[in-house]
Amino acid sequence: MLKVFQLHVSIATFAGMIADGLLCFFAVLMAASSLHLVPGSSAQAALTTPHIFLFASGFAMVMSLLYAFVGLYRPTPIAFGAMLRRTLVALLVGGYLTYLVLNQLAQREYAEQLMLSVVLYLLVGLVVVRGALFAMRRLATTPRVLIVGTGPEAQSVATDLMTLKRVERDVVGFFATDPEAAQSGTMRGHPVFAGDQSIEDIVDANQVDEIIVAVREQRGGGVPMDQLLACRIRGIPVLDLAGFYERAKSEVPIDSLKASWLVYGHGFVQGRARKIAKRTFDIVSSSVLLLIASPIMLFTMLAIKLDSKGPVLYSQERVGLGGKGFMCLKFRSMRTDAEKDGKAVWAQKNDTRVTRVGAFIRKTRIDELPQLISVLKGEMSMVGPRPERPTFVKELKEVIPFYDVRHSIKPGVTGWAQVRYSYGASVDDARKKHQYDLYYVKNNSLLLDILVLIETVSVVLFREGAH
């Protein structure tokens, strides 16, 4: 796992992105070179060498972006058939767009021959490169992990280590912090080491590469901090529960979270430079999206008017930066009597209050396009926690620890929780989403904002997330 600008990236994903980019770059170079060797080709109309390198770089960047747009780099596993279809879609779109550009720079015959050769080289290369990456993952040595603790948290960590591909580890065993747990001998097929054994000796005897302290309460002498410090000094990484889940799932678990971790931990950067960069990004991106989406918005307004009685837009009070309220604009997707008794009700999946047009615009998130106006006004950001209604905020603050932390930044049109968690329509879902919101607040950066917008495209196109 790599950490790039506060963003946790899987090494396998990073390697795949680099390999795909290089493959696209060299596919152009090989195609251009091969045309010179084919009798009767239009090589005399070829681009000059500097232009070919520039074109190859542009093609690599376009294809890398399209691969991200179709969700090839998302952490959620994709079936081979779906991955193949998405790759072909990206290749067709990217090939056509670059052909249009190339057609303006060179003769049409040369452009057609070059792009056909590029696609053929790329298809062959994809098979070879993906096969090589798969073989490397199979042959690579899996890091060995010792889990400190034997409770529910430790067992949950063990399950995640064995099932999550991005953090797959070989669990050596559990170090018992409770004398009674040590008597069991084994747990989930792994040995339980008694607390009277030295963690340093266990690390040496079992060639442990990493230690995860999966104990919610570390005070009271159960966790041998002096032994963990000795291992850390020797270069063995030691993670607590919050650190593990931040790296493994890009979320911050609130059940095991302490205020001291928020106070002393890294991140939560809200300096002047970051605020200026984020505001500039919001103004530029929302303006561009409003311009592009204006025809869609006009058609949506007409469809809503024809489908059901009532206003096209509706405004609703939401809680924003610093806990202050603001009026959030959305396209109306429900009947006008959705809350006729005046009581706020959680939106449900397949909600019967949703109109026919509303069902479509909610799935595609078109209903949220008017929020771009709130972004321009400075009430919202392009990326941030989802703004909630005051009634729900009051309820959630009572049952979800550190819920107010999400109000330290502006709410967003889209966000880390929306692209990483499916559907949320209950307090339990709100707890889960809050863990992703905490991760975003802690690690927010321009790079993370761009990543969220890219993943939003994939979520909308393939309905991987939910409204």
UniProtKB/TrEMBL annotation:
GO biological process: colanic acid biosynthetic process
Gene3D superfamilies cross-referenced by the UniProt entry: NAD(P)-binding Rossmann-like Domain (3.40.50.720)
Entry membrane topology: Multi-pass membrane protein
MF terms (GO), sorted A to Z: undecaprenyl-phosphate glucose phosphotransferase activity
Location of this chain's protein in the cell: Membrane
Keywords: Membrane, Transferase, Transmembrane, Transmembrane helix
CC terms in the record's Gene Ontology section: membrane
NCBIfam families: EPS_sugtrans, EpsB_2
Protein name in the entry: Polyprenyl glycosylphosphotransferase
Species whose genome carries this gene: Piscinibacter gummiphilus
